[in-house]
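Schema walk-through. Below, the input block comes first and the output block second. Nothing else is stored per chain. Lengths vary across the set, and this one has 111 residues.
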Amino acid sequence: MCSPQGDVLSCESRYFISSLDPEQVTPSELLAWIRGHWEIENCLHFVKDRWWDEDRHHLRRPGLGERFVAILNAAMGVLRLLHGDDGQPLKATAELIQWKPARILKQLGFA
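--- output ---
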């Protein structure tokens, strides 16, 4: 579809199911909740699944899976704490930690 100015316009539909009463929420609030869900999916789960292959780990010892997830979540927290706002991707910070661990330990107060 084209606009009168010749711009190409695109229209996509997404359908969501909710138990919310339409009287309790505005369309803009609902859109913000949906976008918030995908922000978590893209910022947290994508990183854990793609970088650390969390979904491929099959741990059979009871309790080991919970410990693994706790360590992974702690590592993610430290990584985000050290990341800063320098415009670099999160993965660049992870690689810096991998290649220069002494600098990071000093930054955390361990050295």
